[in-house]
Amino acid sequence: MASLKQKYGPVLWLKLGTSSNIMVVQTAQAAAELFKNHDTSFANRAIGDANLPHNYPQGSPALAPYGPFWRFLRRICTVEMFVHKKITETVPVRRTCVDNMLKWIEKAANSAEKGGGIEVTRYVFLASFNMLGNLILSKDLADPESEEASEFFNAMKGIMEWSGIPNVSDIFPFLRKFDLQNLRKKMTRDMGKAMEIVSIFLKERKEERKKGEDKGKDFLDVLLEFEGNGKDEPDKLSEHQMKVFILEMFLAGSETTSSSVEWALTELLRHPEAMDKVKREISEVVGPNRKFEESDIDNLPYMQAVIKESLRLHPPLPFLIPRETVQDTKFMGYDIPKGTRVLVNTWAIGRDPECWEDPMSFKPERFLGSKLDVKGQHYELIPFGAGRRICVGLPLGHRMMHFALGSLLHEFEWELPDCVSPKSINMDESMGTTARKALSLKVIPKRA
């Protein structure tokens, strides 16, 4: 799709199926126009058929229709979970989860076949999942010893997989009743299982609160204690709304962090000079006698540049989450009807030669001394979106990405398996809602 920009310009209009109008934003200039001047007109969400089971969108901060209830959901996130004070207070939780990740990696490496390598992204995913489990529910939910935790983990993996597969029912709505790919059926099953387990967590917490047991306040307590203003907010959150809210935090947080760390490590292994440079920087700042800490991140400009450059080339959501026009709109001279699906091609924008010199090359140095960041103000680099519907968990996710990657680089030397060279690493992407590596990175960690 990125190649069509040369022929059709910065905005692409697609007509797919019988009723799907799709507008694709292909350049930073067009993205800036959308987010700066038309953000409200494009603020609704286009919801795929696979996301409809269990009335999920109605309680989802990411998918809820634009309006008072969505603003209320977002306010809970920004005030109670992703504000700087809360993130700082939960440093010990992330420290424990990353320590466990490093132990799991060392154990897996010790039991792996010689020269075979391990899938490191799996352990980053587990650490992210447990970090969210502790912040939200005060539980480790990727614990191999817990049957309940394993069931929840597997159900959530299923939800992520089914929501990321392109669905013919979204192109030809008249086929929805047939569910030809069984995606709605699979999503109904796995989402139902995940909600059933969250119901157990809710019941347990309510019983603990009745008994006066105090284990410290987590995000579930915030949801249970919420009292609305009686105007544009509900008096209390329903159990269904709380369950969807909790599921969303896991869905949004685990996948993007682990995928981004995997791509960054892959690019470093493909470019040994960059790997040497970032490890040297970490060694100088952290030293050999202590652990990598979150407080080190601000003193590591090259590592920050590595993350930015990796996100430029490999945004977690190559088209962001699709938007939809709230009303008939005129955009860059075009008449856009109400209900048009809008895709922002962040993958193409990050590789646009009009924005980036030598765009296909991995060059972290391009960010040194630059004020460009991923927080939605620089439209040539928007891997987490921009405007009103920018990723609400960006402050926490961004912190966890740097902490996980820095810890991996500080604690281990990384080698490729036998018969794999830097130039032969498979760089294919599995293009769906998310853009993971098609073949998971296998590496050999050795204690530094």
Automatic annotation (TrEMBL):
InterPro entries: Cyt_P450, Cyt_P450_CS, Cyt_P450_E_grp-I, Cyt_P450_sf. Pfam families: p450. GO terms for molecular function: heme binding; iron ion binding; monooxygenase activity; oxidoreductase activity, acting on paired donors, with incorporation or reduction of molecular oxygen. The keyword Ribonucleoprotein does not apply. SUPFAM superfamilies: Cytochrome P450. The keyword Glycoprotein does not apply. Heme binds at C391. Its cofactor is heme. Gene3D superfamilies: Cytochrome P450. Keywords: Heme, Iron, Metal-binding, Monooxygenase, Oxidoreductase. Belongs to the cytochrome P450 family. PANTHER family: CYTOCHROME P450 76A2-LIKE, CYTOCHROME P450, FAMILY 76, SUBFAMILY C, POLYPEPTIDE 5-RELATED. This is Cytochrome P450 76A1. It comes from Capsicum baccatum.
